Model the fold of this input.
Amino acid sequence: MVFFLLLSNQSPSGVFFFFFFFFFFFFFLLFLAGTPLFHGAGVYASSTSLFTINTTGHKDEAGALLNWKSTLDNHSQSLLSSWHGSNPCRFAGVTCKDHGAITHLSLSSLGLRGTLDGLDFSCLTSVVNFELGNNSIYGSIPSSIGNLSKLNFLDLCVNELSGDIPPSIGMLKSLHYLCLYANNFYGSIPKEISDLRNLRRLYLSENGLSGPIPSEIGRLTSLIELDLSYNNLIGSIPRSIENMTSLSYLWLYVNRISGLIPQEMGRLIHLKVLSLKKNDLVGPIPSSLQNLSNLIALNFNSNHLSGSIPQELGNLISLSVLLVFNNSLTGPIPASLGNLLNLTMLNLAANKFNGSLPSGFNRLTCLRELYLSNNEFEGVLPQDVCLGRSLQIFHVFNNRFTGPIPTSLQNCSTLIRLRLEGNQLTGKITEASGMYPHLNYVDLSHNHLNGELSWKWEHCPNLTSLRISDNQISGEIPAILGRMVQLQALDLSFNCLSGEIPREFGSLMLLLELDLSSNTISGNVPTEIGLLSHLAHLNLASNNLSGSIPVPIVSCKSLLSLNLSRNKFWRSIPSEIGNPQFLEVLDLSHNLLTGNIPGGLGQLRMLRVLNISHNSLSGFIPHTFGVMSALTSINLSYNNLEGPLPNVKAFNEAPFEAIQHNKGLCGNVVGLPKCNATGSKKHNQHFGARITVILILSFSGFILLSCTLIVLVIIVHHRRRNIRRENNEQANDLAFMGIWNYDGKVFYDRIVEATEGFNSKYYVGEGAYGIVYKAEISEGQMVAVKQTLSSQDDSEVIDLIAFEREIQALINLRHRNIVKFHGFCSYTQRCFLVYEYMERGSLRTTLNDDERATEFQWDKRVNVVRGVANALSYMHHESSPPVIHRDLTSNNILLDRDYEAHVSDFGTARLLRPDSSNWTTMAGTIGYIAPELAYSMIPTEKCDVYSFGIVALETIMGKHPGDLGLQDCSSSSQTGSPMLLKDVLDQRLSLSRIHLQDAQNLVLIAKLAFACLHSDPQFRPTMGQVSRELCVQVPPEMPLSTVSLEQLRNFNVRKFGAFARDGKF
Done:
């Protein structure tokens, strides 16, 4: 009642507000009291509705991710084992907002393999960060990626994505960071990318992108970093780049960009790093670059720039790195460069600069690296170049510098590399001697330095290469050089050195090259040189050396070239001359050698050049020369040789001058008599005498033969009965071959009988640890029998228990791409290993034969590389214990009738005592050895990986790759045009009709091979990774015709190692 009386006194508006607050307060109390009116109906219903919406969103996102997971390979799915259920916020790598929507997908570096086709981006519209870098995602980027409208960060770098970059990527308006580098994208850069106005970092490097840089890119005014390097971009740098005023880092290097460097580049006032190296840019360096006051690094290497260096560049006082190597720049160096006091690296090499260096160079005390080589500079070198005690690399070779070596170098303890060769420097050689704890390379060759070698070189403990050839150095070679145990190359040739070769050189165990030629060194060659087990090149020519050729020297198994010509060596050529199985060049000419040519010389199957002219050799040319198929050049002139020339190409095509002035040679060379005519004449002269002797001996022989046959019948009868009994006990068939007893006389006799006493017609080849023969042990069962090598007293063979243990390990290896090891036989201190016989011989033999190589088509070669990878993967990862091959080469990869690869000769070094000479020498074959073995001497699985890289390239190139990829192979000519993969593949096979899948496989093989050749073992893939890559169906990539070696050479860094962008330049 009171309530209504109060109410009747209010205005209408007051009544309204009164009722409003009254009902609001009433329902609020009911809610607090828990009235069922709310909890049982309305509120519950609303809560249920909200829950349903969130659950539906979860299910859509979870379903999208789970569906994508199911499209990945099995290994990848196992890596995402936490991805199950309906709540994606619990998935590993997934981050959600408070309301439950996915905002971050962080899946980088997990080893995932698959495509993006199965990922429904329309269900992930709340994603802000999408990180999938450093995996093995292949295929194309779906155009539906444009649905990620809130995306700020997209990282798909270091994968195997291919195809075009979709134009729909321009729909990602919120994107700040886009990383697609190190993939296989091709086609042009979509102009729609310019719609990403908020983009700050764009990385598209290391792909196969082509076409010009779109002029629309100038709209990206917020961009700070732009990387388009390592592509095939053409055209000029768009002038619209002047609008990108926020740009701090611009990388356009290793493309085919042409035209001038635009003057507009000078408006990028915030630029810190500008790299345009390895393009086709022409014209002058624009003076407008003086406006780039923040510039720290400028790289114009390997273009076609001309004109002089602008004086205005001296205004860039913040500049730390200035590189203009390999252009056509001319004129003197402007004095203003002396103002760049912060310079740490200056490279002006390989241009046409001339004149003297400005005196301001002495003020560049922060310099760590200075390259002035291959120009036309003259005058004296800056004497204070190392005044700041920072200089590490000083390269001024191939100029016209005169005067002395800079005095500041004597106390330059930071120096690492010093190259002054090819100038006209004068003064004492001792001026280059000092305390250099870090110095590893010195070349002072081709100057006018004089004096004697200093003992101070001993204070260079890390020196690996010392070259002082073609100077006027005199005196004796100091024995102290024998203490420089890190030396790998020593070249003192073309000087005036005298005395004898120091015996202390035998301590240089890492030495690969020794050249003392063209001096006046006398005496005998010390036998200690034979201790240099890694020595590959020995040149002692044109001295006064005398005595006999030391046997230890010609026994160096690593030798590739040996030149002892123009000395006074006498006596015969040692029979051990056939020991260096990889010897390619042998020159013993102009000596006093006598006697016959040893038959062992014919064992040098790799020999290409042989010169034994101007000696007093006599007798016949050994018949073993008939199998020297690699021989291309011979000179046997001015000797006393006679008889027929071997029927091999080198002799048949030799000029008459190479065989003239001998006693009685005959053959098919113009100027020599035919062998058959000479033979007939001698035959007629002695025919009568031979008939008389034959008649007298025939009757006696008939009587003797009759008696012998009677005795043999009796012996054979008894032997057959004994052999049948022994064979039943010892196993008569290969199916029962295992490990024979060490007194295996029965099997030894069968080997001798099957090879006719190891007759040369059963010879198959020779490896580092034995000679291989083919033998038919029983009817229709051919095997390869390796007779292991050892010293005369077999002192290097280990005890029988350890020998048997190793043999058993080899027998347990079973893989389709490993040569089947049947067993071994040991008898009378001889050991034989028995393997499955391969009809087509070694991979090297096939590649070296033009006819067989043309039958060895691309698909077969791909299969061979894949097979070798599978075998090594099995040995490293599946065998227990793991087996390291130690010496993988094309010579011990054997091919069966169907060109299936079979790895052989693995682990044989394990059969020798750890302290034997074979064990302590570097494991492996020159040309296939991993670089770290030069100092570690410990073979690892990554050493096999390196050797595989060489073999893989050799298989697709048709020849040993040499230094391809190990050095800078980005340019095939002076013009700097990129060297393409197709240009180095085996030209004996056609690429015009190659199957698409084979072409893609060749690119993949080359990629993996270059990755395997990384100088740092930790950056090489494992053989398991390589095998998996080769066994997966290869997705479409950039065309074979566009792939450059530079792209392949950089694949190793990004794919299997920690590819760091810090310091990228």
Q: What stands out?
A: The chain has 19 helices and 55 strands.
